[in-house]
Amino acid sequence: MQDEIIYSWSRLNTYHMATEGEGCFHLFNEQYNHDNRGENNYFAEYGLLVHETIEKLHNNELLAWDLEDELRNGLKNFTYSVPFAKMRASYENSLFKFFDEFDEVFKDYDVKQAEELKLFEIDGIKLKGFPDLYAQHKEYGMIIGDYKTSRVYNAKKMKHNIQQLYLYSIPFYNEYGYWPDALVYIFPREKDNRERVIKFDMKELERTKQWVKDTVAKIESHGSEWNPLCSVVDGKKEFFPCQLCNLRNTCEYRYSYHNSLTTV
């Protein structure tokens, strides 16, 4: 008997990105149908360091005078190097600046929960997630927060990615009995104006629910063909296959498809 699938934002979005031509069906199949997680990358390690450090501070597991050592040790223990040397200073400087200003960033937040596992459902579809933050904000009211170590999203990406926080509003409601007032992104790598605040909208929640149902239906009816992204892009130069893909150093398709397309 096949194990019951519990969907996450990552699982749903990995498939969605493949449908958009910005991700890979083969990667999805390996990760989620064959439990082949591959390897990490610099950006994921950086994001994990930010999230874990914030969580420790919110949960009083890290003292302020130990913070700099925590960050330096974290950076030193990265398995992966930044893809381009000139990027290192930008990432590391913004990391230390953000945590130097940590108390100021969160001065108006009364943190209720940080990184706690949530299990919930949408029309029988089981889901799980770890919301970065449930908090009371002096101005915004009760919020669900998320930290993103990318640059600030453009409008299209924001409209899509905000669905992750709308998903987390469901266990929020299950727990508190009311919906959040706002959804908040915090972008640690921004020098200032790090917050993006989105007022909670029930119509957007319904849009998110429909997206989940549609995406799950696509996954479950996908069939047996899991075409690799490298069949249509340059597996030697494209940023995703070369720097981000979890299978980038082991995938049989990364070079073979490109070579077959260019060989006369």
Q: What helical percentage do the residues reach?
A: 40-55%
Kindly state the number of beta strands: 7
The SSE string, one letter per element, is: HHHHHHEEEEEHEEHHH
Strand % is: 5-15%
Assembly context of the chains? single chain
Rounded average pLDDT:
93
What is the 3D shape?
A: globular
- Specify the number of helices: 10
Give the class from helix and strand content and strand pairing: alpha+beta
- The poorly predicted ranges are none
Biggest pleated sheet: 5 strands, mixed
Distance between the termini: 48 Å
In spatial order, strands of the major sheet run: 1-4-5-6-7
Radius of gyration: 20 Å
What does the model show?
This protein has 264 residues and is α+β, with helices and mostly antiparallel strands. Helices cover 46% and strands 14% of the residues. The protein contains ten helices and seven strands. The strands form two sheets. The chain has a five-stranded mixed beta sheet. A hairpin with a 3-residue loop joins strand 4 (133-137) and strand 5 (141-147). Helix 1 packs antiparallel against helix 2 and helix 4 packs antiparallel against helix 5 (88-100). The radius of gyration is 20 Å and the shape is globular.
Summarize the structure.
This protein is an alpha+beta fold and 264 residues long.
Offer a few descriptive terms.
five-stranded mixed beta sheet, alpha+beta, globular, single chain, 46% helix, 10 helices, two-stranded antiparallel sheet
